[in-house]
Specification:
Elements lengths: L16 H12 L3 E2 H4 L5 H6 L4 E4 L3 E2 L9 E2 L9 H12 L3 E6 L10 H14 L4 E5 L7 H9 L4 E3 L9 H4 L5 H14 L5 E7 L5 H13 L4 E6 L16 H14 L3 E4 L12 H6 L3
Parallel strand pairs: 2-5, 3-4, 5-6, 6-7, 7-8, 8-9, 9-10
Antiparallel strand pairs: 1-2
Length: about 290
C-alpha cells in the first residue's frame, strides 16, 4: 500500500499574471514545454518567475517510460522553424538561462540532434547573453548525433540516468544505464570545458545506498552536476510510488554528493532536472 503524500510535497497553486502571459505566449508560438507535458510540480513557481523548459521535436515520444506523462506514439511533427520560435520566445521572456529538452525521437536517423544544434545556435544569435542548457535523449548510442549537439557548444549538457542501475530496465523504456553513462563521458571528451549534468528520481524501488552508488557512477564518468528528486505518479496508469523520502534524507544525499566532488547538487522532494537550473551555471563552470 502506497503511503499518503506527506506535507512537504504539497505545492502552492499560483496562476498570476506571469503564468497566464507565459501560457499564452507558448500557445501563440505553438511551442511545447516539459513543464506542462510532464506535469511538473514546480510549474507555478517557475512560470511565475518567467522561466520554462522548452520541449522541441513535438509532444509525442517514441518511448513509453513507466514514470513519464508525455504522450507516446509515432510522431509526425518535424518543424524546421521551431528553433527560431524558441529563440523568439526566449527573447520575449528575457530569459538569462534557457533550458531545451525533447521527446525521444527514435524515428529520426539522428534522434533530433540537428534540431537541438539549430536551437542552440538560434537562441545564441538572438540572445547572446543567454546561457543554454540542453537535456538530451540518448540518441540510441549514435555518437555522431551527440557530436552535432556538442559542436553547437551548449553551456551545459544534461542527460538523465533517471534511476539506479538495478531499476533502470524496469523504469526506463529502451534506455540503458551503461549507455547513458557512456554518453555523459563521451560528451565531456568531445568538449571538456562544457559542464555535464544528470538527474536521479527516487521512490521507484531503489535503496538509499543505491542512490549513493548512482552518484558515484556519475562522478566516475566526469559529471559535474547532479539533481535528485522524488518521483510523483502522474496518473494511475503509471508506476506506483514505492517510498516517500524525507527532506533530511535529501539533505544527506546533497552533502554526500558535494563530498564526492560534484560542483553542484540540487536535492529535494520537489527537485526536477531543470529546477533552479540558472543557479547551477556559475558553480559548474567554476569547477569544470
Amino acid at each position: 500500500m502506497t503511503e499518503r503524500k506527506p506535507e512537504w510535497l504539497k505545492v502552492k497553486l499560483s496562476t498570476g499574471e506571469n503564468f497566464q502571459e507565459l501560457k499564452k505566449m507558448m500557445r501563440s508560438k505553438t511551442l511545447h514545454t516539459v513543464c506542462e507535458e510532464a506535469r511538473c510540480p514546480n510549474i507555478y513557481e517557475c512560470w511565475a518567475n518567467r522561466t520554462a523548459t522548452f520541449m522541441i521535436l513535438g509532444d509525442i515520444c517514441t518511448r513509453a517510460c513507466r514514470f513519464c506523462a508525455v504522450k507516446t506514439g509515432l510522431p509526425t511533427e518535424l518543424d524546421l522553424q521551431e528553433p527560431d520560435r524558441v529563440a523568439e520566445a526566449v527573447e520575449q521572456m528575457g530569459v538569462r538561462h534557457a533550458v531545451v529538452t525533447s521527446v525521444a525521437r527514435d524515428d529520426l536517423q539522428d534522434g533530433g540532434a540537428s534540431i537541438f544544434a539549430a536551437t542552440i545556435r538560434a537562441i545564441r544569435e538572438r540572445n547572446p547573453l543567454t546561457s543554454v542548457e540542453v537535456l538530451i535523449p540518448d540518441f540510441q548510442g549514435n555518437w555522431e548525433a551527440l557530436q552535432l549537439v556538442m559542436d553547437a557548444k551548449p553551456d551545459i549538457l544534461n542527460h538523465n540516468i533517471e534511476t539506479v542501475r538495478r531499476r533502470s530496465d524496469r523504469v526506463r523504456s529502451k534506455a540503458k544505464y551503461p549507455r547513458s553513462l557512456e554518453l555523459l563521458k563521451r560528451a565531456k571528451e568531445m568538449q571538456p570545458e562544457i559542464p555535464t549534468k544528470s538527474s536521479i528520481m527516487v521512490g521507484v524501488g531503489e535503496t538509499f545506498d543505491e542512490v549513493i552508488e548512482a552518484m558515484q557512477d556519475l562522478q566516475a564518468h566526469d559529471v559535474n552536476i547532479v539533481t535528485i528528486g522524488q518521483y510523483l505518479q502522474p496518473t494511475k496508469k503509471h508506476m506506483k510510488i514505492e517510498k516517500y523520502y524525507t527532506p533530511d534524507e535529501f539533505a544527506t544525499w546533497k552533502e554526500i554528493g558535494l563530498e564526492l566532488g560534484f560542483s553542484h547538487v540540487e536535492s529535494g522532494p520537489l527537485v526536477r532536472s531543470s529546477y533552479h537550473a540558472h543557479e547551477q551555471v556559475k558553480s559548474a563552470e567554476a569547477r569544470v
